[in-house]
Design a protein that fits this description.
The complex is a heterodimer of chains A (275) and B (297). Chain A contains 15 helices and no strands. Chain A is mainly α and 275 residues long. Chain B is mainly α and 297 residues long. The longest helix of chain B has 33 residues, at 8-40. The chains are: A mainly alpha (275), B mainly alpha (297).
Amino acid sequence: MNRGKINSKIIIHVVLIIGSFIMVLPFLWMFLTSVKTLSESMQMPPIIIPKSFRWQNYVDVWNLLPFAKFYINTFAMVFFRIVFAIVFSSMAAYAFARIKFPGRDMLFMIVLIQMMIPSQLFVIPQYLLVSKLGWLNTIKALVVPGFVSAFGTFLLRQFFLTLPSELEEAAILDGCNRWQIYWKIAMPLAKSGMAALGIFTALFAWKDLMWPMVVNMSIEKMPLSAGLASLQGQYSTNYPQLMAGSLYAIIPMIILFIIFQKQFIQGIATTGSKS
Amino acid sequence: MSKLSNNKVADYAWGYFMIAPTIIGLIILNVWPLIQTAYLSLCKFTGFDQPKFIGLGNFIKLFHDKEVIQAVYNTLAYTVIAVPIGVLLSLIIAVLLNSNIKGKTVYRTLYFLPVVSTPAAVAMVWKWLMNYDYGLINYVLSKIGIHGPNWISDPHFVLASLIIVGIWSSLGYNMVILLAGLQEIPTTYYEAASIDGAGAVKKFFSITIPMVSPTLFFVVITTMISSLQVFDLIFMMIGTSNPALPNVQSLVFLFYKYSFMIYNKGYGSAIAILLFIIIMIFTLIQLKYQKKWVHYE
């Protein structure tokens, strides 16, 4: 290898390391602040690493707000949204991709319209609907906007479109009906699509802030995102506790990401290339 | 094939059956709400009583409302600055990661961390980093002789602060999409260019950019649409009681404020419609302009 190439590699690493540092620093600072006492956190010059780690902040913030409930609510919301997204979207996606029926293209327009319109245009009527059903401050309210997924239908349709039609023809000759083809042939072949959809649904639900704040004002029924907002509203100056609470809210997703890293990256890359 | 056409009726039935949950759900949760929002934007409606039709009243008020005009300006300024810088930085990182270096996966993981983090948490730590008195950023600046500004509550800096955090949050997401696009470019193109004596810069502009342009276009459109809808970071980082809020509040923030904080859902609906129109205009401009720079194979 010549000298120019080695030099350029060093430059690339230096740039990437500086960038990585900027990406990671806020997380590091979040952790370091979360183990300081309140007075340590407000010293100038700042204490980088406190003499002893004050884990008590994690206990205090856990007792301050019902974090256990936040977790349960968040997991329930994510779980049901994933189930709905995968079951209903895959059925619709298969039909849109592989079955010819009158009005198919017109009905598919409804899916596209939903994807193109900003969600704020749905929020007030969805809120009124949830309120009329008496579902405010329930887990059901958190799940409602995820009952159907236009994005999921669109994404999985792309997967099903690429299936070779010979497979289906052979299955039909064997006497399979459409449901059996969908369930036994198409679904197993679209596993990576399902994984991508599941990840997207989880990520989107996890990060959503406005909808939970709108429908679930009761602290017992909030997911982590809205819970954090109320934590900040009530205890806005105790940064060690706020940072401990923030870490509670991000750690499960970071663990999931590290475990399913390949699926995350592939899933997101897919949406770019399948456009 | 004949067997296929014999089953036409059964196919129709299965088709309708399989799309039914999704289509019914979309009609209840999206199509009908869309019509309702359009109607409510023409009404006086608090959410507690019956909507009262008032024609274009909300929209007339909208165009004379200084707060709304400022919010439109903030939203556009945020988008026009954050999108190009954010996409360019993501592209640079993606190109660097696409070169033949060690530790790619580690870098990719680190850059991706903000994407899997709740914006609520991200906003809080940045608020702390940018704290005027005790923030790490102002401390580091003071070490090099700069008196750091009040990032969060100085009207001159608050938008810039929001842009920094917005870019930081979305960089990894765009980088992953662009990296996938870059990896699809056949290496033979670069080899051929090397034989012709093209340098790195020439290769970047005559191979990389045109070849990755469809992905780049996708990234620009999606980042633009989500930037026009910025909300979480403003709500969590800037906060409702901040004196600099008017200099940073976006249309979606105003939508939330009118609809769910001061219960003027008619006006909130009108703001949502205005936002929709702005997003449509931006998207159409992009779609029209794309012919000039996006190369589809």
